[in-house]
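Side project, low priority. Logging it here so it doesn't get lost.
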Amino acid sequence: MTIIQEKKDSAHFNAPHAIFRALILAISCVVSFWLITHILADVYSISRDDTLLGGMWAVIATIFVYRDSYEQSGGAALSRMSATLVSFALCFVYLLIFPFHVWGMAALIALGAVVLAMMGRSNDMITASITTTVVMVVAAIGPQDAWREPILRLVDTAVGALIGLGAAWLCTFRLLSASAPGSRSRVEQ
């Protein structure tokens, strides 16, 4: 971004809108964390630490997906979920057969990058690699029934992505209704 673009963007800064979006993001993160650590943890939980990790993972997915528009958030949700699904499949199969090993993790990262490139989603390889790393290291920390980790992180990601998408829709809906002819938003008042 050039200095001219930065000045242009700052000239259009809308404090009430920025505060509203920031509050929606913060509330969405709380909702994601709470859903995973309270509701879903009542259904299935490996340990307190794993439940907290799941809450954190859902919050990360919410933040990753929440963008300036619903359309951008939809693209981010697709990216997040495609990367997570590839990572899930690879880690799940690996952990059913083998325990954690650093070279196994490296092989999964490489394989995930190749799979995503073949799918035409090369931009998702960073997210898939991060997801694979987290899943594999958590499997190393708690190696008993490590094959469950990919499943749990897939659920955490899906919940967080849906919450982020819903939050983006809420903001987009608010902006559209505020800009409808004849309506005055609090931003304009």
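Brief comment: Residues 21-178 form one domain.
Revisit when time allows.
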